[in-house]
Amino acid sequence: MTVDRGLEIVDFHLHFRIGADETIHACEEAAGMHPGGAHERAVRSAASAPYATAWRQAWGFPDPEPPAPDWRDEADRWAEELRRVGVRKAVFVTGGGNDAVADVVDRHPDLLLGFAHHDPYAPGAAAELDRAVTERGLRGLKLFAPLLRGPLDGEDLDSLWGAAQRLGVPVLIHIGHYGSAGGLTVGRYGGPDELVRMARRFPELTVVVPHFGVQHVQDLLFAAWGCPNIHVDTSGSNQWVRWMPYRLTLEDLFRRCYETIGPHRIVFGSDSSWFPRGYVTRYLDDQLRICRELGLPDDHLRAIFAGNAERLLGLSD
What we know:
- The protein has helices at 22-30, 37-59, 71-85, 98-107, 125-134, 158-167, 192-201, 217-226, 250-261, 281-293, 298-312; strands spanning 10-15, 89-94, 112-114, 141-144, 171-174, 207-209, 230-233, 266-267.
- It is an alpha/beta fold.
- A 5-stranded parallel β-sheet has the order 4-5-6-7-8. Strands 1-2-3 form a 3-stranded parallel β-sheet.
- β6, α8 and β7 (230-233) form a beta-alpha-beta unit.
- The longest helix is centred in the first third of the chain and has 23 residues, at 37-59.
- Pfam families: Amidohydro_2.
């Protein structure tokens, strides 16, 4: 029996087998995220493990399990999970490469959508986006700004942004802290100032920033106020609020975004990514409860939790 929340849910932000995603690992290496190689990475991971354990215990999450030997089994498990929790559509923004995530989507096209997520600075990146969208049916582009090898607003990326604008697909750009405890605090490139300059140069390009902009929340609110093509994605636990120098809650984030840019540029996402945790209904239910307690009217709730995603993904007129 599925959950009836009183409205349909379209989730804009999930990851498929993210721990085993070699596409992302390659971008990490290219950005110099692990300067000391395997030894440095192992030492840092071991030192950060208690923080990850404490976080999972606080949320009641089990330890992640290894990916299934066959990706098809994991894709089927996600489809079953989404039906069980009552999510109508879900977007895998990463999945081990463009063809890999397209294959996952093709296995359950009634439920799943996918984004391209290749290296934007790789040769032929614009042509690869065109292929991923026109030939494989992907609906957008995902990138992690801290992993960039050059600036978001650099001329080298103009062809990529131009292709996304021409194709009419959104670009989901993660700015701010990357990864969990022990992750990359800040990248050499990809800050909010670069984001604004890029968004202003490509005014018909839909830009979506996940996790409320992480530590750049104030810069993101100003950026979205000044650039009507910038949207905000609500995904994840948003635990980063604990490290801000002032009190900030999930309710504060929703209230400020709603007051600043209105309901039609806020897009729900869960950031669900691994089993046995599966789909994180707690993130969805907490966000929906906050929006109801803030008194948002039903049409605005429908926009945030389904309608805006449908529009950006080309699922509705």
